[in-house]
Amino acid sequence: MKMLGYGVAALVAIGLALYAVVFLNPQSDEQEAVNTAWSRFAEDVAELGDAIEGAPFNRDERTAAAGYRHIARFLATFLAEFTDFRDPQYPQFARFPNSVARIGWDNPDNLYLAFPVRGDHVYRLRGNVTNFDLITINVYSGMLGHTPVSDIRTISSVASDELDIDGNGDFVLTLGPEPVEGNWLKLAPDAYIVVIRRLAGDWERTDEGLWEVLNLTTLGQGKPRPTPEAVARQLDDAVSQTRALRDLLTLAHRLTFQLAFSPNEISEPAQADPNLPMADPFQAASRGYFQLEEDEALLVEAPLADCRYTNIQLANPWMESLDYASRQSSLNHRTAHVDADNRVRYVISAKDPGVQNWLDTAGWAEGSLCARWTRCAEYPTGISARLVKLHELDRHLPADTPRVSPAHRERTIAARQAAISRRYAGGG
Q1: Is the pLDDT reported for residue 375 higher than 90?
Q2: Cα 55 to chain center, whole Å?
Q3: What is the pTM assigned to this prediction?
Q4: In sequence order, which residues have a C-beta less than 8 Å from that of residue 43 and are 6 or more positions away?
């Protein structure tokens, strides 16, 4: 019996030793620091909900649900951004905003690209203009939510019609601190990110052509492994930008709409100041917000303008673009009808009024709208908005307003869905 006891004890000792060898993993002080960074990240994520719960327009459960989805999308996007797409030494294109991360009236006609830069490095950007109405390329000194607003400025800008482009629509642009022969864009010491706005009014033309960005300063050099300090900083940055950007957008909604405007108004177009944070200096915009009952419509009128690109879009209170694939929540200069008096009339409502220029609120009783005019000979004035009853809408529209049947609307939506599927075939 005693021998049996010794045998059991020996087996237990061996088992514990094997467990320690196989399963126990003592942590060094450096590893514990990384573990702490992860724990801090998890706590910070839990606190992001405060930004949704406290928003002044969050007044019902569906708005709240959309808000939590919105901030989850932000977090997912910024985690990818900071872990993979914010290294200026080895830049990659980020599609931001995109079909998931919708931010601040992200434009449904804009196939955004962005990449990080350093002011003392030299980059080569290749692109193609063939299927775009206009491309603008802007260098900024920071990013909203990550950089203090007072420190963000537009360093340099160029539009596609200012570039030397070959017969195939291709161009090569050098970005660096010193001028070079050919297409060149200045990088200042505080250069942080390049945002490319590729405006595509015709959604059927979805071939983007060849796009490539290379850092010529580090070209051919192997990228080093991430350090614990870098990973900890990336986690912190992802959460802090998510929170700061959401707080900034909530403040913008509060100041721009709930205080500056009355419901169902629209501002006159204001050309973007290049010194404003992340503004496109080639664009003017009008903004407003709607509050509509089921039997109401907001009729927005604007004169026809001589511009390379125009559009109008709707957004929810979180300033996300509405579902532009499955809803006609945006129109541009190629898809909107211009009346015989050279005015464009848009009808915003929850119910389809059967007119071509309908903008679908997608079930939102409250939201915002943004209209854009880009690269214009002269920016328009005389924009108006008025609230009308749906059953009286025809009294406010020209007699020859194009009518759209339910079957035609379904074909239009099907075409939008197919176009967006093609656009993001490689991922959002």
Answers
A1: yes
A2: 20
A3: 0.90
A4: none
